[in-house]
Design goal:
Chain lengths: ~260, ~400
């Protein structure tokens, strides 16, 4: 418990490419959040933890409960519990959008689709396997070969005037395809639009396996790319909601579960 | 005189399988023909004629469990076989071509017994070996059954082949068919099947007196030595041990039994411990396995025997497969299902998405799938598997609040 009499819970989401932390006050208010672009096996998780505590003006000892999630959840020292990023993203998405029924989370190398029931709990899920095509890593590779900032891809794709398809499902072969398009003087904006449609096609296929029930919410880092969100809306023919906190959904869910476990104890 | 200490059933079972391989080696030394057989070729025929037979699938599983799977698969791929084909086939083809497999050596074949009731990959796999060694391939064709019952025409088709196989094996063995011996062999086979099914049935108890993963190890006997009285004795001993465990309140599952699951599919032999650990950590016991009881079939006459061989997991229609599995789930009171999408087994994996949907609808329990491979370790990711098991655990927790197990 903090010196101010409030209870603070920390959710740590250690992904493959980034570490996210959220501190909640009394299970209701986000008092701080931090993101470090380094994931499991690096200094990222600890740096994110230090940063989020500093922001909140708290010490480790002020925390009532710490819950870790994500790929690196079992490597977080001092965590009181671990839960899968599946449940945590579901919980976080519900907190941000109480009417959510389908969560689409695209992270650094994982893509998952979660079905949420009317109680706001996860009742089914599908994930990509073996292959990271269509995930954040795919977009990073494409941004590099196109020599654009990954954060500019949405704006650039909105300027597309001609349809250019990127048909390879493999990241490496798709990179070759992009290079080939560039060699044929295709416009970068058109290529980027094609890349976004490729991601949407792949993720949309995953979502259709589970069934797409509105309200559909996108979480994870790729949700920040409005071009992908738009392409996915066109693919699934439903509006897709997202939030500036999309990348923190897992950490938020972890902090909320942490709060639940703390008050139960 | 002190009473001889009773041998543990698992030791008896291990010795039976060791004996199968040893007898094959001994027969080879004596200059007798030794066969390789697919796992659900009617074993009673070779046994009646006194022919020694080994099982490449069992060998491949053992090689994979002892971490030789990747080496053998790579050897087969180097020979030109695609990495998309079954890893058992790749391991076996590499071995047949002369690659060493110290993990589980067995004599090279003089004849082949191939039945496609378990899959169609068998056909090409065995054809390749027959060509490599220039040896007879005896095919027993059991087509996929789109109906829930086995028709009279199908039984007639199989019976015709049954007698044809006898003729071919009489020529290979230089022995004549003995109907009395066949009846004795069938009696052993049925006794084994009944004892095996009885042992498996103890999973119904709550808590279970056994870890379902034990059955993956014990099933080698029902595959390789179904017709031997020693196998029946070993399974009867196993059932007695489980009966005693129920009375004593003990179990080979030495952890909390928070949840019970059905494990669908062939296990990932190279990473059995990795499969087991997250389940153990969460107190999830496997109390239903499809792969194991699939080999426990009983028959009273030749017609029933033919019908029994028509019922392999991959040769029955979807409705029968679902009914079978849902029955096991209900009897063994499972809380969830973990499905192995086995890259090596396209037919088994292919129908699973539809089965998953039916399980959820009919049983109201969570079903989670993971990608893996029965014998090629390159197709399995520990991190991805663990996440899915954690997800299944969380779904079962949530489901329990609502409705409990089936």
């Amino acid at each position: 418990m903090g010196n101010d009499g409030f209870s603070y819970t920390l959710g740590i989401d250690v992904g493959s490419t980034s570490s996210k932390c959220v501190v909640l006050k009394d299970g209701k208010e986000i008092v701080s959040k931090a993101l470090v672009p380094f994931g499991a096996g690096t200094s990222g998780p600890e740096r994110a933890r230090k940063e989020v505590l500093e922001q909140a003006g708290l010490l480790e000892t002020d925390l009532s409960y710490t819950l870790a999630t994500g790929y690196g959840r079992n490597m977080v020292e001092g965590a009181d519990a671990q839960m899968s990023e599946l449940s945590c993203h579901a919980r976080g998405a519900c907190e941000l959008f109480p009417d959510v029924r389908t969560v689409i989370d695209i992270g650094g190398q994982d893509a998952k689709v979660l079905r949420i029931n009317s109680n706001g709990m996860m009742e089914n899920f599908v994930m990509n396997d073996k292959c990271a095509a269509g995930t954040g890593r795919f977009l990073e590779v494409m941004a590099r070969v196109l020599e654009v900032d990954i954060n500019e891809m949405a704006v650039l794709s909105a300027r597309s005037e001609k349809k250019v398809d990127i048909s390879s499902t493999c990241t490496v072969f798709a990179e070759s395809e992009v290079i080939s398009q560039l060699s044929n003087n295709a416009d970068k904006c058109d290529i980027i639009s094609g890349i976004h449609r490729s991601v949407a096609g792949r993720t949309g296929g995953l979502a259709k396996r589970l069934g797409v029930l509105p309200q559909v919410v996108m979480t994870g880092g790729v949700a920040r790319n409005a071009g992908v969100v738009k392409a996915l809306e066109e693919e699934l023919k439903v509006p897709i909601f997202t939030s500036p906190l999309a990348q923190y959904a897992g950490a938020l869910g972890a902090a909320l579960f942490g709060w639940q476990k703390y008050i139960r104890n | 005189m002190e009473q001889e200490e009773k041998k543990a059933a698992k030791i008896m079972l291990r010795e039976v399988v060791d004996q199968v391989y040893q007898e094959a080696w001994d027969a080879k030394k004596r200059g007798e023909p030794v066969g390789w057989s697919s796992s659900k070729f009617p074993a009673e025929i070779a046994e009646t004629l006194g022919l020694k037979v080994c099982y490449p699938e069992n060998q491949a599983a053992a090689v994979a469990a002892k971490h030789g799977g990747q080496r053998m698969c790579e050897a087969a791929e180097g020979m030109g076989y695609s990495n998309d084909i079954c890893a058992y086939a790749r391991i076996s083809l590499a071995y047949a071509a002369g690659e060493e497999a110290e993990e589980k050596p067995m004599p090279q074949p003089d004849f082949l017994l191939c039945c496609n009731n378990i899959c169609n990959c068998m056909t090409k796999w065995y054809e390749n070996i027959a060509r490599m060694h220039n040896i007879p391939l005896i095919m027993f064709d059991i087509p996929y059954n789109n109906e829930t019952e086995v028709s009279e025409e199908s039984v007639a088709y199989l019976k015709g082949q049954f007698y044809d196989v006898i003729g071919q094996l009489e020529a290979i063995s230089s022995r004549k068919w003995d109907e009395e011996r066949f009846e004795e062999v069938c009696k052993n086979s049925n006794r084994t099947a009944k004892a095996w099914l009885k042992a498996c049935s103890y999973c119904q108890y709550e808590p279970s007196p056994l870890s379902g993963f034990d059955l993956f190890n014990h099933m080698a006997d029902v595959v390789t030595a179904r017709c031997k009285p020693e196998t029946a004795e070993a399974f009867e001993a196993l059932a007695e041990e489980y009966e005693q465990a129920v009375k004593d309140g003990t179990s080979t599952w030495r952890y909390d039994e928070n949840y019970r699951i059905m494990f669908e599919g062939i296990p990932c032999w190279p990473v059995l411990r990795t499969l087991f650990t997250p389940l153990k950590n969460k107190g999830i016991n496997t109390t239903a396995v499809v792969y194991a009881p699939a080999f426990g079939f009983v028959f009273n006459n030749l017609e029933e025997m033919m019908k029994a061989y028509y019922k392999a997991p991959n040769s029955v229609c979807l409705e029968t497969g679902v009914k079978w599995r849902e029955g096991i789930c209900r009897e063994n009171k499972v809380d969830g299902v973990l499905v192995h999408y086995n890259r090596s087994c396209k037919p088994w994996s292919g129908y699973m998405p539809e089965m998953e949907r039916r399980f959820r609808k009919d049983l109201g329990i969570p079903v989670v799938g993971f990608d893996g491979d029965q014998a090629d370790p390159r197709n399995f990711s520990e991190a991805q598997y663990t996440t899915r098991v954690d997800g299944l655990f969380e779904l079962m927790e949530e489901n329990k609040k609502g409705r409990g197990s089936v």
